[in-house]
Every structure is written in C-alpha cells, then in structure tokens.
Amino acid sequence: MKGSTPVSLNLLSASIPSPEWSFFDLGPFRIHAYALCILAGIILATVITSRRLTKRGAEPGVVLDIILWAVPLGIVGARIYHVLTHPGDYFFEGADLLRTLYIWEGGNAIFGSLIGGAVGAYIGCRLTGIRFWTFADAVAPALLVAQATGRLGNWFNHELFGLPTTLPWGLEIEASNVAFPVGLPSGTLFHPTFLYEIIWNLLGVAVILYLERKFRLRFGQTLGAYLIWYGLGRSFFESIRIDPSEIYFGIRTNVWAALAAIALGLVIIFVQRHRHPGLESSPYVSGREWIAPDAGVEFEDSDSEPEDNTTADQSDDADHPESPATAATSTSAPRL
C-alpha cells in the first residue's frame, strides 16, 4: 500500500487537468467556452474554404453566401441528431423539453452537422452558381480544422471522455461529474478522446491535402477522402468512450455512423472518378461564371469555344474536362 501512493501521485501530476471553468459572465450575458470553440472553428473553416475556392477561380467572399445557409442548418442538424440518438436524456416523464434546445450544455453531433450542413451548402451553391462538388472539395480539409477546434469545447465541458487509463496523459475528471462511472475511485484518469480526435483531425488535414495534390482529386473526391479519414478515426474513438449511447447490434450509434461515412466516401470517390476523369474547367456551373473586375487578367479558356448550355450543363455536377492548357492554371473562366 505504501508503494501505491507515489505511483498515483506521479500519474496525477503528469495527467491532463480539466478546466476549472466552462463559462464567464459578460454583463448580463453568459459566454460558454463550448460556444466559443464552435465559433472559432466556423471562422477558421470559412477562411480556409474561401482561400481554396478563390484559388480555383471563384469570386472572393462568395463562401459567405454559402455558409449563411450551411452553418445554421449544420447547427440544427447537429442538435437534432444528438437529441434523436440520446432520447433517454430528453424524453422521459417530467422532462423539460426546452433542454433539447440547450446547445451550450453540449450535445452537437458531428454527423448531424454534416447532414444539415450539406443541405445548406447545396442551397447556397444553387443560389451562387458554385458547383456543389467544388465547394465540397474546398471545405473538406477545413471541416477537420473546425472539428479539431470544436473538440476543445468538450474539454471545457468535462464530457465525452474515454475508458479509465493509467497512461501519463490521462484526463482528470471530478468524481462529482454525472458521467463519472459508478464504483471507480476518485482520482481515476480517463482517455482524453477529445485530444485524440484533435490530433487525428489535424493529421488528416495534411494527409488529405497531400492526396489531393498527388491524385488530383476533384468533383467531390476530396470530400470522399475526408469522410473515409474521419470515419476511420471516429469509429475507434467512439468505441472507447463511456458516455451513454444507443446500442444497435452491440455497436454504438456513432460507430455505425462512422462506418456509413467510410462507405459513402468510398462510393463518392469511385463514382466521381469514373464520371469525371478530367479536371474542373470552372468552379461555376455553365452560364453563371464570375467576371473578374480586372479586365487585364488572362483567363484559362478565353480562346476556347463557347460551351453548349444544355440542360445537363446547368446542373451542379455537370463539370467539363479541362484542356491541357487549362489544367496548368487554377484561374477561372470569365462570366458570360
């Protein structure tokens, strides 16, 4: 017994402490760290996506017109998914149904945000003329940055930690936490799944950007790579979490969602690779190209034949292979 105390103290001294605060008051307003992390992630993703779209020839700032739809619907989708996959937390006799709206308490599911955000992005792309798959590719690595930033919110909320561990980077969780497993002694450390996912996501940014350049991923293939990468990591991290979750056939709901993301990513890459073997000629659908204000700028297909504006060309995924000259530059065609 005497030898066990120093070991416990050494482990605790090397562990990761949970923050002592999760919000602060600014006048009459209460600012939650969780919300700030999500907001920071949205801002970073917007900046990254805007730069990537602009490099492909889109109008600077057009991303704002798209995220005005994608972000709100993404948040709504995230909350709906969480509530529906954790019915026991919100729907019981005497429950306060307004708590289903308390997003500052945590509970915004990534997979729900992807579904809702995709719907919003599609609407925004239709309104701006940006090809949906072009936007999807531009936002893919930015999503990982946003998710890594948002995971810090779980740390501030002392939530979504993993199994007990004796590793030196174990996470400290107070025994009074409602999610603290019954029967474990105070001072037990847990896997910091928030940190694992942050590292995995940031590593994924580098991997996806490399694959995009190496294999010239376009037409949603970068998004497919994102879904595969994130799904692989999430399927593992989810399996070591101990927070309550609905179980189907012995597997947590979000593990099923992660496996579905992997499958969807593979399908997108396979289908789009065969449908569109070339590169994009423009980030815009035919007939809605942006005209740069600098008339002196040379555009990649200024000498090309005008496109046939058929009905198929007007669709979001009607992309046209580039000529060899076009493939050498990333600028867009002028608006007609």
Automatic annotation (TrEMBL):
Gene Ontology CC terms, in alphabetical order: plasma membrane
Could you tell me where the Acidic residues compositional bias lies?
Answer: 297-316
The principal location of this protein is membrane
Pathway(s) it belongs to? Protein modification; lipoprotein biosynthesis (diacylglyceryl transfer)
According to its UniProt entry, one GO biological process term is:
lipoprotein biosynthetic process
Molecular function in Gene Ontology? phosphatidylglycerol-prolipoprotein diacylglyceryl transferase activity
Entry EC number(s): 2.5.1.145
The UniProt annotation puts the region (Disordered) at: 296-336
Q: Which InterPro entries match?
A: Lgt (IPR001640)
Pfam families in alphabetical order: LGT
Q: Which domain of life is it from?
A: Bacteria
The protein's location, in the record's own words, is: Cell membrane
Supply the PROSITE patterns for this chain: LGT
Q: Which residues cross the membrane?
A: 31-50, 62-81, 101-125, 132-150, 194-211, 254-271
Protein family (similarity comment):
Belongs to the Lgt family.
Q: Which PANTHER family match?
A: PHOSPHATIDYLGLYCEROL--PROLIPOPROTEIN DIACYLGLYCERYL TRANSFERASE, PROLIPOPROTEIN DIACYLGLYCERYL TRANSFERASE
- Function, please? Catalyzes the transfer of the diacylglyceryl group from phosphatidylglycerol to the sulfhydryl group of the N-terminal cysteine of a prolipoprotein, the first step in the formation of mature lipoproteins.
Protein name, entry field? Phosphatidylglycerol--prolipoprotein diacylglyceryl transferase
**Gene this chain is encoded by:** lgt
